[in-house]
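HUMAN: Mind making up another protein with tokenized structure?

ASSISTANT:
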Amino acid sequence: MPMTERFSFSAYSLEGFYDEMFDESGELREGYGYLKRAFENLSAGDLANRHLAAERAMLAMGITFNVYSEGQGTERTMPFDIVPRILTGSEWKHLERGLVQRTEALNLFLQDIYNDQKILKDKVIPREVIESSKSFLRPCLGLTPPGGIWCHITGTDLIRADNGEMLVLEDNLRCPSGVSYMLENRELSKQLFPEVLARTGVQPVSDYPARLLSMLERLSVRPEPTVAVLTPGIYNSAYFEHSYLAQQMGVELVDSRDLVVDDGYVKMRTTRGFEVVDVIYRRIDDTFLDPQAFNPDSLLGIPGIFEVYRKGRVALANAPGTGVADDKVVYAYVPQMIRYYLGQDPVIGNVPTYICGEAEDRKYVLDHIDELVVKEANEAGGYGMMIGPKATRREHALFRRRIKDNPRNYIAQPTISLSRVPCFFNEGAEGRHVDFRPYILYGDRIHVIPGGLTRVALRKGSLVVNSSQGGGGKDTWVLY
């Protein structure tokens, strides 16, 4: 497209996929009208300059992540596409209701399996599924966190299927990441298209840090508590986010070298000496928190912190033990959890899932592996996954062998195309596949932030949206 010409969506092709902006007949969906007119009032060159300005702003702000698979680790900026994804107010209310329901059920599940284990005794979930999970932490048995809340911060991954229905792809309760990109993507939208944002009637997300801090402070029994964000360190892929959230909340960013257990409390080294820490927002996986309680080889944790936590002298968010709910085999049973604990049907369904640990499901997966997406139970970030229709016969054979050797460690799901959203390229608008991660805070009540991170597979034809696998992000506009 010549840079001096007005930008146009006229040549945009749906290519048979569900599109977030246009319906199957090419008509504009609700909420996108003013955005489309605004884009088409600008030249392709003007939009290209704004896109470049967004990339430079992200670099200047240090919005980066590390990719471990590339040698020693490569630091990159998070790619940002300037065309936002829009959700109507009515659809958001439906999603909000479903996310509140799911979060409540998952929290009740965590409290139950570490205490009375009624759901296991009633055989709603097979006991061996839980007890064989790598993330089921026996030291947490008998534990009840402050207020009975385990999952203070949740990121639930949603996708839209071919029929337009939103489905839950996976749950993230340990250390859900990406919220800093949600916040910074919105700041970029404000800079690039302030009038469009204002005229479209978009709900704000900027109060997230304040809401997060308020929720964390409520976990302490002391007034005016000291709150800290615990990071694995500067080489972690999400270190930018850890430092960003600490700065936004006005609290200390610490790693294991800054904290020590002393006289029955967790204390932080400061220029004034040791100071008691009341609440820790931990961005370290469960098993690395305390080498005395969990993984003895961990160099990232604080020896003795778990015992202090058990005695109620420090609060941890999220609570240790939440990782069992991130297990992709456990995910398959969340609809049963909702019915068991709440007596309700799920508002948002799961993607249909085959559990390779069950003989009948395993046989189907082995026979149809070229049609399915196969995932390891405890991997994330697009790793440990095979997309059957795009994989080679050699990869099919490899995953068949892995499933046979360790069936408990795998699930499989139908290959779902994922919906698409137009993305800006110099040649014009092209559709790319997206998913969606909204963020949920659980304090005195469950609050779903009216926005989230739309991750986009920027490689043409790709279904993998993870930033470590070539994906990027879009701002998500939730309308009033």
User: Anything to note?
Assistant: The chain is about 30% helix and 25% strand. Residues 386 and 430 are 25 Å apart (CA to CA).
